Amino acid sequence: MGIENLRGSIVAIATPFKENGDLDLETFDSLVEWHVEQGTDAIVVCGTTGETPALSEDEDAIMIERAVKKVNGRIPVIAGTGSNSTQDSIKYSKRAIGLGVDALLVVAPYYNKPSDKGIYLHFATIAKAVDASIILYNVPGRTGSNISPEIAVRLANDFKNIVAIKEAGGSMPVFAELLARRPKSLKVYSGDDFLATSANLLGADGCISVVANLIPGDFHQLMMASLNGDAEQSRALFYKYKSLMELMFVESNPIPVKSALA
Description:
By secondary structure, the protein is an alpha/beta fold. It has a single domain, classed as Aldolase class I (TIM Barrel), CATH 3.20.20.70. It has 11 helices and 8 strands. It has helices at 25-38, 57-71, 86-98, 116-129, 140-143, 149-158, 172-181, 193-202, 216-227, 231-247, 255-261, and strands at residues 8-12, 42-45, 77-80, 103-107, 133-138, 162-167, 187-190, 206-209. Strands 7-6-5-4-3-2-1-8 form an 8-stranded parallel β-sheet. Strand 4, helix 4 (116-129) and strand 5 form a beta-alpha-beta unit. Helix 4 (116-129) runs parallel beside helix 6 and helix 6 (149-158) packs parallel to helix 7 (172-181). The chain is globular. It starts with 7 loop residues before the first strand and ends with a helix.
C-alpha cells in the first residue's frame, strides 16, 4: 500500500506494557482495531510516542510485525526506523520492510548535531539503500539537530522515495516556508497536534499525532475539516480539544498520553 496520497490523522501509537515490563500485545491489538474502526488514516508504530528508544531490537521487531499483521492491509503502517547511526538506520529500515510496512519514518540524527551537509548525506545514504517510501522526521527539541526546509526540499527533489516530512519543530513560519517551497511530490505532516489545524489550512497534509491515541474519531474529523478548508468546523473541534492537546505535553511525551489511555 503506497502512502503517496496519504492525508489526514496518522496516529503515533503508544506501546502498551504489562506490570512486569513485558509488551502487552493483546492490548495493542485492541488499540489498533479501535483506530481502524474510528477512521484513523494510518498508524506509526515504534515512533517517539511508541517509546522506541527504550525498546530492544527484538521488541521493536515484534511491535512492527504485530501492527502489520493486525492492520492486515486496511490502512498504511509506517515504522519508525531512525538512528543517529546511518548504518543502523539502514539495518532497521530493511528489517521493517521485510516485516511488511508501507513506509518508514526516519528521524534526523540525534546527539551528533550534524551540519546541513551531514543531514543531507545521512538521508541520501538511507534513501539509496532502501526500496521504500521515507518520511523525514524533524524534531529539534529531541534530536538537537534540524532538517531545514531547504534540505528537506532538496532531498525530496533528489530522491523519489523521500515522499514526506513530519515537521515537529513547533514553528508556523517553518511550516509556511516548507509549504511555499515544496515540490508536489512532498507531503508535509505536522508533528505537533496543536499546530496541525493551522498548518492544514495553509496547505499541509495532516498530522502524525499524539492526541489521536485518545480521540481517534474526532481527531480524524478535525484533520478532514481543516484539509477541506472548513474553517468553522475546524475551529469548533480545535477549541473543543485545545485543553486536551495542551495536557498531552505537561510532561515528556508519552507520559501524559499513556496515563490517559490507562
